[in-house]
Amino acid sequence: MCGGRGTRLDTAVEKPLFRVGGVPMVDRVLGALDDSRVETAYAVTSPAAPETRAHLDAPCIETPGEGYVADLEAALADERLSLPVLTVAADLPLLDGAILDRVFDAHDGGSLSVLVPAARKRELGVSDDTTFERDGREVAPTGLNVVGESGDDAWLTDDVRVAVNVNTLADARVAEELS
User: Fold this and answer.
1) Neighbouring residues of 10: CB distance < 8 A, sequence distance ≥ 6
2) H/E element holding 63?
3) Domains present along the chain, CATH in parentheses
4) Does the predicted model carry a pTM greater than 0.90?
5) pLDDT tens over the chain, length 179 residues
6) Are 53 and 60 in contact (CB under 8 A)?
7) How distant, in Å, are the alpha carbons of 84, 88, 110, 167 from that of 151?
C-alpha cells in the first residue's frame, strides 16, 4: 500500500519515497517482500502518489485515492489477486523477509491482523495515533495484515520491525536510529 498522501510526515517528497537510511521506504518494503516467501508483489498506488508510481519497477494496482480502507477494497477487487493476500504499508522501513515469514507462520487460513502493544510504540518513541483494546490490552495496528475469506485473528508482537511506522518526522528519526 503506497498511495497515501502522507500529510502527517510534513515533507515535500511523497511518503513512500521518503528515505530512511538513504533508501526510499517503498524500496525497503519491496526488498523485504523479495526476501520473504511472497511469490508476487503488487504496489497499490493512487493519484495522490504519482512520483511513487513512476519510481516503481513492480507491477501496480491503481486505486482512486479515497483513503486506506477504500483503496484496500479497490485493490482486493483486482482480478489478479486471490485471497489470502498479505497487505503491507509502505511506511514500515524496518521490515525484512524474516518477519514477513513469521507472519505467514502465524497465519492460520483466515484474516490476520498484526498488532503491537501500544506501550511498545511509546517505549520506542513513535506515534501511536490509532489504538484499541484487544483481549484486555491496548494495541496498535502495524500496517501489516493478511486478508482472508473470513475470520478476525490477531498476532501480537513487540518486534521493532513492525512497531515502527513512519508517519511523522520524529518517527523517521527513530527509524533512522534503528535501521
Assistant:
1) 168, 169
2) none
3) 7-178 (3.90.550.10)
4) yes
5) 988 777 888 888 999 999 999 999 999 999 999 999 999 999 999 999 999 999 998 899 999 998 888 999 999 999 999 999 999 999 999 999 999 999 999 998 899 999 999 999 999 999 998 999 999 999 999 999 999 988 889 999 999 999 999 999 999 999 999 98
6) yes
7) 11, 19, 5, 28
